[in-house]
Inverse folding.
């Protein structure tokens, strides 16, 4: 039975005809491309191809086709489509920005948008997420002509961070011809010998947008809240006689030796 004229929205015998039933459907989505479904009849079994534009719906491309032979050389084509139906503004996908705050590292942020602006994110640009962040990568993925899904990643800090401290304590050997060690286990008469003294290294990791204080290296500098040092070592003395000369080292005691 031929399709009644009342069921045809548009089309001629020389082109595919859009049916009124089932009615064309458009799904306008916030986080993805829009979708549509349309049913046409034609005399050509292979009238449509995937990724071809839907007739009279220029913003939609055919995703897949279900073709039914209705008899008498007439074929019914159910089209499922995707694309952009009508005007659409750039939008941020639900669940973004995705912020990961770290105590011992930089905070990271991932942001995902669907937009017609391929340059919405550019590595090096500042982020508007509070604190101080910078875009380290931007990956625009083409969805359909003129529209992109852009995944951008930012790094910086969006939350306050305390300095993270790492302390190591080793010994360093000091030797001389005339040494007195007037503490428990030592000796009071100047003798040739060696003494193991503590070598304490404090490494503070600080997250800031200020440049490192390279002008302080090397130099005497006591870290905030320095760890305790065995106070008995202050009683150790080195006696110089004759031609023996002491070796003096700068900086001494607490010293700032490197900034990374």
């Amino acid at each position: 039975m031929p399709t009644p004229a009342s069921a045809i929205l548009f089309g001629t015998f020389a082109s595919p005809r859009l049916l009124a039933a089932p009615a064309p459907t458009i799904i306008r989505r916030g986080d993805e491309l829009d979708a549509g479904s349309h049913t046409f009849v034609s005399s050509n079994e292979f009238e449509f191809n995937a990724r071809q534009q839907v007739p009279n719906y220029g913003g939609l491309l055919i995703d897949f086709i279900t073709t039914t032979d209705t008899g008498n050389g007439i074929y019914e084509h159910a089209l499922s489509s995707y694309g952009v139906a009508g005007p659409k503004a750039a939008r941020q996908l639900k669940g973004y920005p995705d912020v990961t705050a770290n105590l011992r590292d930089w905070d990271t942020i991932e942001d995902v948008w669907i937009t017609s602006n391929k340059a919405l994110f550019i590595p090096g640009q500042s982020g508007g997420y509070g604190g101080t962040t910078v875009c380290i990568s931007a990956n625009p993925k083409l969805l359909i002509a003129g529209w992109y899904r852009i995944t951008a990643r930012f790094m910086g800090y969006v939350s306050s961070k305390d300095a993270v401290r790492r302390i190591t304590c080793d010994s360093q050997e000091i030797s001389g011809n005339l040494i007195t060690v007037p503490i428990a286990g030592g000796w009071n008469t100047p003798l040739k010998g060696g003494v193991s003294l503590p070598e304490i290294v404090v490494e503070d990791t600080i997250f800031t947008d200020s440049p490192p204080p390279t002008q302080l290296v090397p130099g005497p500098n006591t870290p905030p809240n320095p760890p305790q040092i065995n106070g008995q070592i202050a009683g150790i003395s080195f006696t110089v006689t004759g031609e023996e000369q002491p070796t003096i080292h700068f900086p001494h005691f607490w010293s700032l030796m490197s900034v990374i």
In short: DSSP finds no helices and 17 strands in the chain. The two ends are 82 Å apart (CA to CA).
